[in-house]
Write a structure and sequence with these properties.
single chain, alpha/beta, Uracil-DNA Glycosylase, subunit E, six-stranded mixed sheet, two-stranded antiparallel ribbon, 8 strands, about 15% strand
């Protein structure tokens, strides 16, 4: 069996959202496909002025084959609505397209993808960005932000700021909804949700001037 360190060999020459999604279903660009139920590709309006990029599919997404359909997706939907945005007008995807997990008894627990896996999957994300043509990308969580802004990026230092790179739409990074759900204290969960909504409002404000 061939082993690849990148998804590049699987990227189709003719790139549309449909051809990318179909090709991604057979991706073996890293070893995550071996244990995941399926590829979880992005979905939403194309083109879209706003693109949300999460980190990696979770348990619910892996089974459904769609991004942000589990508890984190529910919290994201609440936050999008609270920020005055409409998910029906947004393109939503993940930096890594396969669920990475470790077995704990009978449960499959989420495990953060390695940097090599993030790098391997980047061609799919760049393909989506090319087709969706967003004015702003909101990265949800450190892994998503690092996939576009570099491994040294830290949410704790640069959350909520607009970052601009050559040949790239503007990027704003904020918390992943699952980080809010994992916070042990109610006060921390309330604060993180408020800050997520604040950052999504900042995204809406930025787009209103573009």
């Amino acid at each position: 069996m061939a082993h690849y360190a990148t998804a590049l060999p699987f990227i189709p020459q003719r790139r549309t959202l449909a051809t990318l999604r179909a090709a991604a279903a057979a991706c073996q660009g890293c070893d995550l496909y071996l244990k995941a139920a399926q590829t979880v590709f992005g979905e939403g309006v194309v083109p879209s002025r706003l693109m949300l990029v999460g980190e990696t599919p979770g348990e619910h997404e892996d089974r459904a084959g769609r991004p942000f359909v589990g508890p984190a997706g529910g919290l994201l939907d609440e936050s999008i609505a609270a920020a005055g945005l409409d998910r029906g007008t947004i393109y939503v995807t993940n930096a890594v397209k396969h669920f990475r997990w470790e077995e704990r008894g009978k449960r499959r627990l989420h495990k953060k993808p390695s940097w090599g896996q993030v790098e391997a999957c980047r061609p799919w994300l760049l393909g989506e960005i090319e087709i969706v043509a967003p004015k702003l990308i909101v990265c949800l969580g450190a892994t998503a932000a690092q996939s576009l802004l570099g491994a040294e990026f830290r949410i704790t230092k640069s959350r909520g700021k607009i970052h601009k790179r050559e040949a790239m739409p503007a990027v704003l990074a904020t918390y992943h909804p699952s980080a809010d759900l994992r916070a042990p204290m109610p006060a921390d969960r309330a604060r993180m949700k408020a800050e997520l909504i604040h950052d999504l409002k900042a995204a809406r404000q930025y787009l209103s001037t573009r």
